[in-house]
Amino acid sequence: MRSFDTRSHSYLGYVLILQGRVDEVSQDFKVAIGKAAQDKHGFQVGDKVEGMAEPVSDQRLELAEYYKASKLRILDRGSGANQKPPPWTSLTPTLETYRQRGHRRMAARTYEQKCQSCIWGCKMPVEIMIDQWNPSRLKFRFETWCYGPKSCSSYSAGPTRKVPGRHGMTWEEEDWIDEESTSHRELDE
Ligand code: SF4
User: In terms of CB atoms within 10 Å, which end of the chain has fewer, N or C?
Assistant: First the structure.
């Protein structure tokens, strides 16, 4: 969530990016799952899975097309972690670990082309409150972020993010904010 120069995060769970079939129709699609489901199954890149899910009710608030997954089952394990990252494809860390690591903005094109299979890549729905005195004035968009090592050769920041506010004002999120939120990590951490 953003409100001009302030932001907050809710770490709700994970998103599985899948190639497969929905109601026997072949397609690429995404399914949001909760922390408990990931803890239980330990989904990892390359796994073959099946399950039930519902279409999301508001596509502005979800990256995935489906959520409320149930009856999840792993049919076949993938080949395991990539031995020569990037991208990093080992088991995902806990949500607390992501929050503790902090993130840097990442160019949307870099995310689409190089980072969708990386455990450190993230595309998140963002709700922007344009006017704090009129909380019903909202905008929605998606932003891409990297929680990975600052030395990653695939990383590209892209343009700074601009946040709209009252009376046509705009706030720019400058580089120092990313530097500060990841300053506790070494380059390869
Ligand atoms: S830029 Fe970030 S998300 Fe992309 S491969 Fe590197 S660590 Fe992973």
Answer: C
